[in-house]
Amino acid sequence: MPASAAPTHSSDDSVSAPVTSSGKLAVMINVRQPQARIFYKGKELGKPPITVELEPGSRRSFEVVAPGFQTRKLVVDGSKAHIMIGLRAAPGTATTP
């Protein structure tokens, strides 16, 4: 799936991700398009909002996909507790974001 050249992430919250009882960082990912689905290494994680956990200092790349929109790559590093992104309409598609 081709990824768009959009910025990798944006956030409504400048607070670092909280640490869970297992010592991992918890990051909530939300997408403006409610029909979006989030994938990690080709496996569907579900529809947003979802919370992902990652080791401190690590980074993970996700793909965000929705019908009628360009696939977007999202890199999460735990520097933000909440990430809100939007997708760009696919060329030639009249879609309401």
Characterize the structure shown.
- The chain is built from no helices and 7 strands.
- By secondary structure, the protein is mostly beta strands.
- Strand 5 and strand 6 form a beta hairpin.
- The chain is elongated.
- The N terminus is likely disordered.
Can you describe this structure in just a few lines?
The chain is mainly beta. It has no helices and seven strands.
Please specify the SSE layout and strand pairing.
Layout: E1 25-31, E2 37-40, E3 43-46, E4 50-54, E5 60-65, E6 72-76, E7 82-85
Parallel strand pairs: 1-7
Antiparallel strand pairs: 1-4, 2-3, 2-5, 5-6
Total helical elements: 0
The tally of domains stands at: 1
Mean pLDDT: 84
Percent range for helical residues?
under 10%
The whole-angstrom Rg is 13 Å
Properties at a glance:
elongated, three-stranded mixed β-sheet, Immunoglobulin-like, mainly beta, single chain, 0% helix
